């Protein structure tokens, strides 16, 4: 027998976690008395529809061979947080299913995170891949010059497509030989000095040995 006078009522429950099962039962409270609870019902909450995806960091600079982890945040918070990752050019940088970027070669790529719930909701980030310096070679490796003369040294950066090819030169003894910013050595007096070239990127070095010898004595006046 169905009780008379019972009216259907709607209740809104807030603060529930998405994709979670909840069990509910109802009872009526009159004064200080509560009726028996109704038969329970189990429901499972749904995810909210995704609206946007934000990747952090948005701009990333890596050297060839380097890696970096990116994070994707789907909005709102109650939306499903899973995304698929992709790179605009795997020859420059790849990205795995966990958001880890691996730099392959010099260039720039766009990384995209796409909501698994809605394919047209996605976010992007930029990855700039630079080629770091792996070594430097100075030429010539040794030279013998007279007091007061000069010798031009040349630094070759490896690899050839390195982004930063700036170098500095230094001498082990500036009383014997000095060197300018272009690698031009000027001898001062007899002796030996080591010229070192150092790359700005990576502090790679190489050296050249400079031997300064006296000028030849002029022939005596009237000599044979």
Estimate percent helicity: under 10%
Please write the string of helix (H) and strand (E) elements.
EEEEEEEEEEEEEEEEEEEEEE
Beta-strand residue fraction: over 45%
* Shape call: rod-shaped
**What class would the helix/strand composition place it in?**
mainly beta
Using only C-alpha atoms, the radius of gyration works out to 37 Å
- The total count of helices amounts to 0
CATH class of the largest domain equals Mainly Beta
Protein name: Fibronectin type-III domain-containing protein
Organism: Virgibacillus pantothenticus
Pfam families: Big_2
InterPro entries: Big_2, FN3_dom, FN3_sf, Ig-like_fold, Invasin/intimin_cell_adhesion, NUP210-like
